[in-house]
């Protein structure tokens, strides 16, 4: 269960991975440097689970082009598997052109563009878009109230966490990177500031449930072209300012307007997609 004392990991995440059904690795052995970085409960065999978790981390923006992945021992400890299992997953990523191994230095992400193109070719379907609309419908119920409570209950440390998340969000967008992970950190920080762990659990469900194609479709709809992404970040900044001013009612309405804007963008994209199909 997430708590108010959650600390950021190396990627800035403020919470550990929530439990999932089925076989689960022991997180207690995960090194501090990777704790919370990977959704370790993905389905599949051992090396498939490691592979899919690494792909998800890259697609969500946790590891951008040129980023160094954690070492084999760190990954083995994180997933509670042997180093040969980790090596199998890394070999697959290397064969697909996603990473490059440099002797004595580690494994670096290099093939993000090809990976994104391959996954985007499978993502733009009415079914995927409907899943995203379902997510937004759920968020519309939960997140405005979380923003209101955050404005009323937030501590100075909470405010610093929200501000840091938005700053990293802005930097990622300015660099042209996928921003999903940093967007998530912003909303997670607000949920933590609400001081009710149920809000944090709800945000975690939205972060870890979507498949990679859905994350990329979300990036395409909300952050491309760049000017659209800039407008989305401005909506986040408005929510932050209202939480800083402790204006709960206005923070609630600003978060509601932000999510409604996202729903309108997605609905318009879905209508265009259906109209263009033969």
UniProtKB/TrEMBL annotation:
Keywords assigned by UniProt, alphabetized: DNA-binding, Transcription, Transcription regulation
InterPro entries reported for this sequence: GntR_C, TF_FadR/GntR_C, Tscrpt_reg_HTH_GntR, WH-like_DNA-bd_sf, WH_DNA-bd_sf
All copies of domain HTH gntR-type, residue ranges: 44-112
Protein name per the record: GntR family transcriptional regulator
Xref: CDD domains: WHTH_GntR (cd07377)
Keyword Transmembrane helix applies: no
Classification of source organism: Bacteria, Pseudomonadati, Pseudomonadota, Alphaproteobacteria, Hyphomicrobiales
Protein source organism: Kumtagia ephedrae
Pfam families recorded: FCD, GntR
Taxonomic superkingdom: Bacteria
GO MF term (any one): DNA-binding transcription factor activity
Signal peptide: none
Region annotation (Disordered) ranges: 1-44
């Amino acid at each position: 269960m997430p708590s108010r004392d959650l600390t950021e990991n190396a990627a800035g995440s403020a919470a550990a991975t929530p439990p999932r059904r089925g076989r689960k690795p022991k997180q207690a052995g995960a090194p501090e440097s990777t704790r919370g970085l990977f959704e370790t409960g993905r389905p599949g065999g051992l090396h498939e689970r490691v592979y899919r978790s690494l792909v998800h981390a890259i697609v969500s923006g946790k590891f951008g082009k040129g980023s160094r992945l954690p070492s084999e021992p760190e990954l083995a400890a994180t997933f509670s598997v042997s180093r040969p299992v980790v090596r199998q997953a890394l070999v697959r990523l290397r064969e697909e052109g996603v990473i490059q191994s440099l002797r004595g230095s580690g494994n670096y992400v290099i093939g993000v563009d090809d990976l994104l193109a391959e996954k985007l070719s499978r993502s733009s379907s009415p079914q995927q878009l409907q899943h995203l609309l379902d997510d937004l419908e759920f968020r519309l119920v939960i997140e405005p109230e979380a923003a209101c409570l955050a404005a009323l209950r937030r501590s100075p440390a909470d405010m610093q966490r929200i501000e840091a998340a938005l700053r990293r969000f802005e930097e990622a967008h300015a660099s042209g990177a996928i921003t999903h992970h940093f967007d998530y950190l912003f909303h997670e920080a607000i949920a933590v500031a609400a001081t009710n762990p149920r809000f944090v659990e709800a945000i975690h469900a939205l972060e870890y449930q979507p498949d990679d194609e859905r994350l990329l479709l979300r990036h395409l709809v909300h952050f491309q072209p760049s000017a659209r992404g800039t407008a989305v970040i401005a909506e986040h900044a408005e929510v932050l300012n209202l939480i800083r001013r402790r204006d709960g009612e206005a923070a609630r309405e600003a978060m509601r307007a932000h999510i409604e804007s996202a729903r309108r963008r997605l609905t318009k994209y879905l209508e265009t997609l259906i109209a263009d199909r033969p």
